[in-house]
Amino acid sequence: MSLIVQKFGGTSVANAERVMNVAKIVTDTFAKGNDVVVVVSAQGDFTDVLVDKQMEINPRASKREQDMLLAAGEQISIALLAMAIEKLGYHATSLLGWQAGFQTSSAHTNARIKRVDPSRIRAAIDRHNIVIVAGFQGLSRFGDVTTLGRGGSDTSAVAIAAAMHADLCQIYTDVEGVFTADPRKVPNARKLDEISYDEMLELATLGAQVLNNRSVEMAKKYNIELEVLSSLTHAPGTIVKERTKAMEKMLISGVAKDTEIARVSVTGVPNIPGIAFKMFSRLSKKDINVDIILQSIGHDGKKDISFTVAKNRGQDAVDALKDYMTDHGADEILLDTNVAKISIVGAGMESHAGVATKMFEALYDAQINIHMISTSEIKISVLINADDADKAVKAIHDKFFD
Amino acid sequence: MSLIVQKFGGTSVANAERVMNVAKIVTDTFAKGNDVVVVVSAQGDFTDVLVDKQMEINPRASKREQDMLLAAGEQISIALLAMAIEKLGYHATSLLGWQAGFQTSSAHTNARIKRVDPSRIRAAIDRHNIVIVAGFQGLSRFGDVTTLGRGGSDTSAVAIAAAMHADLCQIYTDVEGVFTADPRKVPNARKLDEISYDEMLELATLGAQVLNNRSVEMAKKYNIELEVLSSLTHAPGTIVKERTKAMEKMLISGVAKDTEIARVSVTGVPNIPGIAFKMFSRLSKKDINVDIILQSIGHDGKKDISFTVAKNRGQDAVDALKDYMTDHGADEILLDTNVAKISIVGAGMESHAGVATKMFEALYDAQINIHMISTSEIKISVLINADDADKAVKAIHDKFFD
């Protein structure tokens, strides 16, 4: 007998029929002799309905009240799923975040899980109940309802799996697993059977929005085996776990695209010590995260510094550096939002030479110009024009997988 | 400085505009130097939306899960009202039933309030916050979310007023107060300035659905002054309080109609001791509440017994008595659902003779036949044909108030 945590996102419980479908998956797992804890998100677009209600009344409402409002969404889902499970003849107990023992920081709308006390979950399991937990929410030490921010339900599921030493944590979604590229764009993209935590982290960061990063980090920390799979097909998904020898035989595990970025270039910066530090400290003061950084080789006592930021922070970055220009005498600041970052990720990269060369060759063959390059142990990223993004993904994918 | 509890029903917070209207009333009260605790119900027909969601999935879901589902409705309302109050520049704190200290029995969907611990409410008031509490809900000793059943938000408001020794508990609704008759049916019905708890209890029981009975009983027990008033007009409403001399000058305070009843008649019952007891014990075993009872004067060793029950229990009552007929030898059981109970209520009745005569005269003038009569210290009820109900109310009202 195993303890399995299953997480279902909003689309999986969007209407009565889908809720019944989830109840079927859950009870099938239970009927095989497993203990089951289910984590669900709010139904379909219900969170948007609630946000619309807020916007009509007060777009600048306090974050505490935003959390109070949004947490109602999962409350509805867990009750409906419990009812659907009862309908199939099983005992079910729904628990809100605070009832399930989720203690969080008090950073409303983006709280961090501090501790999960699963005693109520365990007590319900001991009474042979299937337990349904509201994802995305918890309670601060002040007794206020909090939410975990984007992808919070994934994190809730992994946190329960960690606290209860679950044997498996299944993340049900609307795709069949993790693919070597976006299957909507690259027809011959393949589903991976396995992927390591590190590769998954790189892919998540790079815009393959299958799993939330915080949840993968937590799974890695507590060594929880994840499975990403579809709630609609009954096919096995992709297992995310510690790197194995078998994985290293594959050169790369995926090609990812991120178009939500912008490039900022500051030209004619004086080539003196500390000049880059001063630039990036101004950005971090404004909470602007910088990704790829490129610095030109200086000549005539001047150099150019380029970096990428999230697209929606592009203008903020330019504004934050206006005084810098005046203070330190740069020539100009350029903002380019029409760029895309294409990355390949693979645990095998470390031990195989020529991966970068193969990627650049693919881009050259497709006549795509590279603006910036960045590498890590298991990742190579290039910055190109946004218009070339899909073509680039396909070209690289074909090069490695055909 | 006073402590005022204000309760707003679902229609008062049905949309963004109405929520802002309620926020205006609340903040006006606060700005006059009062501490304010607000109790709200779920928005408009949102409870129906949730019930529909349940019905699609499992009409026979457990009551625990029904409570979990329904409690989400008030959670949305309190957050939205808090946001609206913030929008007007005031500090607001919304609290769920359990956060506001509502400890209830574990009778899901119809829980009783056992205790209110208002320490969190008081702490928020001390921080100069307007506190918004989710009505209708609490927490059982097992830590499960409960709901209080019909009219539960009124009871929530009075319970807070009692626990905090509030100076006034205002129940905002869609009518301007308590009227001498239904103003939609009787154009010259008058709004009462004051009414006693006992009269209000009789009127509530009799179908003038302004205030929930449990809330009036609790207000009487803890001597909480209630005001029933409209959230749309700014007119003073009706004060419900201990009986005063002034009230007794008025002969009657209202005429009420109840068409949700049925009459059951059992004819030819043997006229021997214990025969009525045996009849009504069978009904109480089935949880059927009997209201008016009429027993004919026996002759030839036989008598007839008639009684009224809620319309939706009429057939149950007949079924419960089928064996009784066989066991004790009655002639037949008749069920009449086409009846109405018309009642007059008045604290002055006790000290004024001729009230009943005046009522019967009004019905005689209108040529309305009386089937049954029932009286208490401050109430006289008659059973008539349902078709005559509105005519009867008008005739009696005209007789007493014109």
Describe the protein in words.
Chains A, B: Catalyzes the phosphorylation of the beta-carboxyl group of aspartic acid with ATP to yield 4-phospho-L-aspartate, which is involved in the branched biosynthetic pathway leading to the biosynthesis of amino acids threonine, isoleucine and methionine. Chains A, B: GO terms for molecular function: aspartate kinase activity; ATP binding. Chains A, B: Keywords: Amino-acid biosynthesis, ATP-binding, Diaminopimelate biosynthesis, Kinase, Lysine biosynthesis, Nucleotide-binding, Transferase. 2 copies of one chain form a homodimer. The mean pLDDT of chain A is about 90. The first copy, chain A, has an 8-stranded mixed beta sheet with strand order 3-6-2-1-9-11-12-10, sandwiched between helices. The first copy, chain A, has a 4-stranded antiparallel beta sheet with strand order 13-18-20-19, with helices on both faces. Chain A has a 4-stranded antiparallel beta sheet with strand order 15-16-14-17, with helices on one face. Chain A is globular, with a radius of gyration of 23 Å. In chain A, α1 (about 15-30) packs across α3 and α12 (about 355-365) packs across α13 (about 390-400). In chain A, a hairpin with a 6-residue loop joins β15 and β16. Chain A is built from 13 helices and 20 strands. The first copy, chain A, has a domain at about 5-175: Carbamate kinase (3-Layer(aba) Sandwich). By secondary structure, chain A is of the alpha/beta class. The first copy, chain A, has helices at about 15-30, 45-55, 65-85, 120-125, 150-165, 195-205, 215-220, 245-250, 275-285, 315-320, 320-330, 355-365, 390-400, and strands at about 5-10, 35-40, 90-95, 100-105, 115, 130-135, 135-140, 145, 170-175, 195, 225-230, 240, 255-260, 260-270, 290-295, 300-310, 330-335, 340-345, 370-375, 380-385. The interface of A and B includes residues 50, 53 and 56 of A.
